Amino acid sequence: MRCPVREEMMRDEVDDFCGWFLGRAQRLRRLALDAAADEVLVELKRVDEGLALELADHGELRELVVTALGNPKLFDVVRRIKSTLGDVPSWIITALKPARGFDFVLTTPDGGRIDVSESFFESLETDESPPQLVIRIFLPAEMVTQPDIKWLLRLAVEAGIGEEAASHIAFVEAAPEEDTPGDPLPIEVLGDFVAHVLKMNRQ
């Protein structure tokens, strides 16, 4: 159920954040990345504690990615921030983590390295109604037991196919490569696979 009062408060909080950011955008552009990220994050959390950000420099431009950390309930808030900010000189404003592909290496806390682009996956469904999508990614056996491997794989999936698409995956699991079935799919097609599943579920 929608709450008009809560929605109006959220709009005010978004407007406050955007006004704050626009008034300081050029100074924030000149700050070191970490310092700028810390300042923006404090103000972003005033909109909602579930929001976060990523900052990166691309030549003369600095990119602000506002993320809902995969929470679909906050996607509209993130989009509202982007639309309210509009075009900001020297900045790229991105709503939700974009799809960047899987051409990267994942480093675990214990120093393990996974070339994500060479990974394969299979899909499963939960017994719930409606069923939820589960993705199982096959890794070298020693990587499956790495600390926080499921969380790291979730981040890898978000980076690869984008935050919005990844939100349709209920769980991401890790399994040893020796358990790979005969017809696994390469990780590079995961985005297309999720889009296909969504299309089939809408029919």
Molecular structure report:
This protein folds into two domains: 92 residues, no CATH class; 98 residues, no CATH class. The protein is an alpha/beta fold and 203 residues long. α1 runs antiparallel to α2. The protein has a four-stranded mixed beta sheet with strand order 8-7-6-9. The mean pLDDT is 93. The protein is globular. Helix content is 43%, strand content 24%. 26% of the residues are buried. The chain has seven helices and nine strands; from the N terminus they run ααββαβββββαααββα. The longest helix has 27 residues. The chain starts with a helix and ends with a helix.
How many β strands by DSSP?
A: 9
Shape: globular
Seen as an oligomer or otherwise, the chain set is single chain
List SSEs in N-to-C order: HHEEHEEEEEHHHEEH
Q: How many distinct helices?
A: 7
Q: Which blocks of ≥5 consecutive residues have pLDDT under 50?
A: none
Taking the alpha carbons of the first and last residues, their distance comes to: 26 Å
**SSE-based structural type:** alpha/beta
Helix content: 40-55%
Domain module count? 2
Q: Using only CA atoms, what is the Rg? A: 19 Å
Strand content: 15-25%
Q: How would you write the strand order of the largest sheet?
A: 8-7-6-9
Calculate the mean pLDDT score and round it.
93
Q: Report the biggest beta sheet as strand number plus sense, adding barrel if it closes.
A: 4 strands, mixed
